[in-house]
Each structure stands twice: as structure tokens, then as C-alpha cells.
Amino acid sequence: MFRSVSSSLLWRGLLAIAVGIVSVAWPGITALALTIWVAVWAFVTGFVEVAMAFRAGQAAGERAMYGLTGLVSIALGVVLAIRPDIGALTLATVFGLFSIVYGITAVTLGIQARRVVQAIPRPTRAAA
Fold this sequence. Notes:
Elements: H1 2-25, H2 27-53, H3 60-82, H4 84-119
Helix pairs in contact: 1-2, 2-3, 2-4, 3-4
């Protein structure tokens, strides 16, 4: 059992090294492959979300959000499939903007959580 696990780890490690070398040697084709992969992911998740919009037992607002996010995801997949060349640059830009917004949100929530924790009265030690 341990032999098959170590063998699997070895092969995955060698594959990761090979992929890393290819990525560094040919960044253009790597960006294209990543863009196509994200396009396929967007299509699949989009269709799943649209299908979930028609599932029974959910509120109309939830179904509408599933449908809307599914359609946006499908649109992203279409755009990336049509123009993968500009899709790679767009993905990097969107990821950067997302990271900035996420970071600002996380810092803001962290500050608010700290204020809430500081506002909670601390129990005093009872005299024994």
C-alpha cells in the first residue's frame, strides 16, 4: 500500500516538474491552455447553475440568482472561447481587481470584528 502511494507521489511530482518547465519555457501556450480551461469551467458551472434555477423547493429569489449567475458564467465561457488571446490578459486583470476588492473587504471586516471583540465586557476574576 505504501509503495503505491509513494509511487503515485513520485509520478505526480515528476509531472508537476515537467508542467512547470513547460510553463516557464512557453508562457504563451500555458496562458492559452489556462484560458481555455477556465472557459470550459465557466461553461460547465454556468449550465449547472441554470439547471439549479429550475429545481423545485427554492424561493424565487434563489432561483433567479442561480439563473443569473449561470448566464453570466456561460457568457464568460463564450467570451473566453471566442477570444482566448485577450482572455488571458483579462483573467489576470480581473484576478488582480478581485484580489484588491477582496483584500479591502477582509481588512474592513477584520477591523469591525476586532471592535466587536473589544466591546465585549471581559469577565472579572472572582475573589476566592
